[in-house]
Write a structure and sequence with these properties.
This protein is of the alpha+beta class and 469 residues long. It has helices at 227-239, 245-256, 262-268, 277-286, 292-306, 310-318, 320-323, 327-335, 343-359, 368-385, 389-402, 405-417, 419-432, 438-441, 447-457, 462-468; strands at residues 2-6, 32-36, 39-40, 42-47, 50-54, 63-71, 74-75, 79-83, 86-87, 89-92, 96-97, 103-107, 130-136, 139-140, 159-160, 167-168, 180-182, 193-202, 211-214, 218-223. The strands form 5 sheets. Strands 9, 11, 13, 14, 18, 19 and 20 form a 7-stranded mixed sheet that branches.
Amino acid sequence: MLVSIYGHHLGPDSGCTPSRGTFPEPVQLCGVSVTVGGKKAGLLYVREEQINLTVPGTAPAEGMIDLVVTYNGLSSPPVPIRFAPLAASIKLTRPAYVDMPIWIEVDLPEPQGRSLRYPITIWPADFGGHQFEVRRNGADFPPIALANSFPKSFNGPGGLGMIGGGSLLGLPYEPKNRSRLPLHLIYRFDRPGRYEVRYTGYEGRGAGSLVLARSGWLQFVVQDLPPSKRAAWLAEMRRTAPSDPVELLSDFLPSILAVPDGSVLSMLEDYLYSPSDLVRKYTLYALYAFDDDLVVNEIPALIEKRGPTDELAYLLSWRRNQFQSQAAALVHSTVKYLDSPTPLLSAGALQVLYFMKGSYNWKADPGMPARMDKEVAARANRLIETRDYTILQPLTLYLGIWKADKSRDLLWRIVVENERAREQALICLTWIADPRDLPRLGSYNTGNLDYGLNLAYGAAAGPYLKGRQ
């Protein structure tokens, strides 16, 4: 926070600033220092009637805080100042009903308001540092407890948000209602009654993060709704579903997730095969809100009917303990899609086989890994000839864990014929770690390959790497 202090005898008669490029700001400047809650502040400008400073990050964010100015050894008496979060206001966008979407509109001052644009991340119920508390009849109302946690990587699309390190998705244009958050993805409103909600915007995600903005408590009533009316609403949502990715991500998909049941899961099928990778990934993570048994029963049938995708491959990998009993059937469903002319499906089939061969238990069906190798080998030439990187990338991964002369030959073919997939193919050759490949691998110069050579061949790779330095 930037603060200006006005008074008399605060510093020298002429203005004084730090040297250009000084960072962090000095805590003493031309005989002046300032403490905020006992912590020394960084000084930007001092003179007789004004001081500009930055509040230290370790200063308290709330409460009565003493400011003390010292100039040439003389200190002012403490001046108590009330520190408080920025004022946010919230409201419901429409009346609230049981088992229906409840959207909360959040009004934040600028520039903090720029950090709010749902979806904030690719995980539906991840609001970054934008958080809510809910009470029912005056008592704390617990949030939804998921049986499985989301596998997360913070290297996703978008840039950092201004509140809480949210990663604002790279949407092609602004949503119609950018400042709404789907409260129903955090709290399950399955009973009518009186509720209260309060918004808090935190500086970061972790425990102990500073509070930057807060609203007052908003009271609202959740009204009962007959199941037949909810069914009619879902039918209307299905009939009028948008095709635009921005509308899907910012309104349609989060709305229908208010109650993740079988009827909603069937509505998500199309979006697991969307041409938009953002929509496919968002829908993948939405599956974590559904009952395990429901997902495990439905997904294998979906793969049999419509084929595997990269996103479904990750689901089968992350939830392999639940899908293990259907492993052989999943392979049989998958291999036929290696022949698909659609890259989404043929690449998805390769990714599924790569994950399943490497991470599933094949003790009950020991011949299955060799069957997978045979199926991939039979199509490898055609797959390589597509020159499509989305296909070649999972193909190289599969060949790298196959570890046979056939897979080595195919990887070297990719190295020679496809520049974009070359580095991945070279790295996968280091997984095979055949000593016959070492001289040829040593002729390629990439940092990642050097690392792979060191891991795969140990000291034997030393002379080759040293000769390339």
